[in-house]
From TrEMBL:
It is a multi-pass membrane protein. Keywords: Cell inner membrane, Cell membrane, Membrane, Transmembrane, Transmembrane helix, Transport. Residues 69-177 form the Tripartite ATP-independent periplasmic transporters DctQ component domain. It comes from Citreimonas salinaria. The keyword Mitochondrion does not apply. This is TRAP transporter small permease protein. The complex comprises the extracytoplasmic solute receptor protein and the two transmembrane proteins. Pfam families: DctQ (PF04290). Part of the tripartite ATP-independent periplasmic (TRAP) transport system. The chain crosses the membrane at residues 12-35, 77-101, 113-134, 154-176. One of its GO terms (cellular component) is plasma membrane. InterPro entries: DctQ. It is found in: Cell inner membrane; Cell membrane. Belongs to the TRAP transporter small permease family.
């Protein structure tokens, strides 16, 4: 059982690494766009146009400015990132929890509560994946595209659905794992998601 858990954690970590890479690219796009917008504003200012109009206009003409469609890229990419991080958060029990009321409970009751929590997460994650799948289908049928870059909106739904399905699978896996722990009384992983 522990080997299966380690494989699931590795897969979830791979999803998180991909999400982190995409997030880093989105941060870079945002920073470059902000710097480009600021430079464009400075070059188009009265001061720059009066001191060196040819140079200022020449630099503006090279395309210095905000990245076209930067907000569309960030919007689509962030949705994917969130779903890419969810499987790792699920298998490592990285969600916020309040243990004040459960610390005094016996271990059997704690395992039951952990199982119920994981089951609730699994149900919600499966529902999100199903709804996202429906939205993807509707988006593909509508042919809707983004305003500036004109890429199909369904692309971002499809990318997000991959992470949502992985998160749902991780949620179901963790619910089954916690059920096994609750029934047998044998801890496979700690409440924090680390191997026991």
């Amino acid at each position: 059982m522990l080997r299966v858990h380690l494989v699931v954690v590795r897969l979830a970590r791979a999803f998180a690494a991909i999400g982190g890479t995409v997030l880093s690219v989105l941060v870079l796009i945002t920073c470059l766009s902000i710097v480009g917008r600021a430079l464009n504003g400075a070059l188009a200012s009265d001061l720059a146009m009066s001191i060196a109009p040819g140079l200022a206009q020449g630099l503006i003409d090279t395309g210095i400015g905000a990245i076209r469609g930067d907000f569309e890229l960030v919007e689509a990419g962030m949705a994917f990132c969130i779903f890419a991080f969810l499987p790792f958060c699920q298998v490592t029990a990285g969600h916020a929890s309040v243990d004040v009321f459960t610390d005094a409970l016996p271990m059997r009751a704690k395992r039951g509560l952990i199982f119920l929590t994981e089951t609730l997460f699994a149900v919600v994650l499966v529902a999100i994946a199903v709804q996202l799948s429906s939205a993807l289908e509707r988006s593909m049928q509508s042919g809707q595209t983004t305003m500036l870059l004109q890429f199909p909106v369904w692309w971002s739904y499809a990318a997000s659905l991959v992470g949502a399905v992985a998160a749902a699978a991780a949620g179901v896996y963790m619910a089954l794992l916690r059920l096994y722990e609750a029934v047998t009384g044998h801890a496979v992983v700690s409440a924090a998601g680390a191997p026991a």
